[in-house]
Amino acid sequence: MTLRRLSIFATAFLGAAGFAGAAAAQALSVDLGGEGALTLQVVQLFLMLTVLSLAPGIAIMVTCFPFMVTVLSILRQAVGVQQAPPNMLIVSLALFLTYFVMAPTFDAAWRGGVGPFLDGELTAEAAFTETLTPFRGFMEGRVDPMTIDALREAAPMRAETAPPETETPLSLLIPSFLLSEIKRAFEIGFLIFIPFLIIDLVVASILMAMGMMMVPPAIVSLPFKLAFFVLADGWTLLAGALVRGYGT
Predict the structure, then answer these.
(1) Which GO CC annotations does the UniProt entry carry (predicted)?
(2) What is the pLDDT of residues 30-83, one digit of tens each?
(3) Which residue of 106, 140, 209, 224 has the lowest C-beta tally within 10 Å?
C-alpha cells in the first residue's frame, strides 16, 4: 500500500463516521434569515475536520500502537538512558512497527469498505461498518475476556438497560482492548527489566565491596548495560518478538 493510498484510507475511514448521518441530506439547508443559508455540506466539512483532528487518538485506540510504544518506553527506562532514544524516535519506531503489524488489517479494511465507498458501491454507513469489521476482529483476537467482564460488571445498570447484542459494542470493546494491551506491555516490561536490574545489583555490590559508596552505581553500570544490549542485538530481537507476538 503506497503512502497516498494509506492517506486516502485514513481520511475516508475517519470521515465516514461524520458523513454517515448527513450523506443522504445534502440538498437540505438551514435558513439563517437575511444572512443566507448554511447547507449541510458545510456541516459535513466541520464534522470531517473534527474527526480528522481526533485521528491520532482514534488510530491509537484500534491498533497495536499502545502496546508498541509502552514496551519501547519501558526498555529505555530499563537501560537507564532518559533521553536516548528521544521521544520522537520512540514514537516513530512504534508507528512503523504498528504499520508493519496492521498492514493486513488495513488492506482488508480498504478492500471491504473504503475502496467500494470511493467507487460509489457502498453508502457511508455501510462503508463505515465494513471498514471497522477487520479492526473489530483484530481487537477481539487480542482482548482479555476477563477485562471485558470486569468493565461490564463495573456498570451493571447500563448492562441491564442496554438492548441485547450479538457482538461486543465498541464502547466496551475499545477500552477493554486498550487495557489488555497495556497490561501485556507491562508484563513484557517486567521481563525486560530483569537482566538490566541484575547488572545494576552486581555493579552496586562491587562498588560497595571496593568502598566506593559515593560513586553512583547507575552511572557505572550504564556502559555495561549498553554493551550488553548492543552485543545481544537487542533492538532487532525486541522488534522481532513484538511483531511475532501478533502472529505476523
Answers:
(1) bacterial-type flagellum basal body; plasma membrane
(2) 444 444 445 656 776 777 777 677 767 776 788 888 898 999 988 888 888 877
(3) 209
Of 80, 59, 66, 57, which is closest to residue 242 (Cα–Cα)? 66
Maximum distance among all alpha carbons in the chain? Answer: 88
The grid coordinates of residue 99 equal 504499520
Contact between residue 58 and residue 73 where contact means Cβ atoms under 8 Å apart: no
Which three cell numbers, joined as nine digits, stand for 59? 488510530
How is residue 207 written as a grid cell?
Answer: 562498588
Global model pTM greater than 0.90 = no
Cell reading at 215: 560513586
Q: Which three cell numbers stand for residue 152?
A: 461490564
C-alpha–C-alpha distance, residues 96 and 79, integer Å? 22
Number of neighbours of residue 84 by Cβ within 10 angstroms: 10
Look at residue 192 and give its three-state secondary structure. Answer: helix
The answer to whether the CB of 180 falls within 8 A of the CB of 147 is yes
Residue ranges per domain, the chain? 3-244
Q: How does pLDDT run across 135-152, given as a tens digit for each residue?
A: 888 888 888 888 888 887
How far is residue 101 CA from its own chain's centroid? 11
DSSP strand pairing (37-39 vs 29-31): antiparallel
Radius of gyration, alpha carbons of the chain = 24
Task: Provide the 8-state DSSP code for 32.
Answer: -
Cell of residue 183, nine digits: 497490561
Burial of residue 165 (CB within 10 Å: 0-12, 13-18, 19+) is exposed
pLDDT at 170 exceeding the cut of 80: no
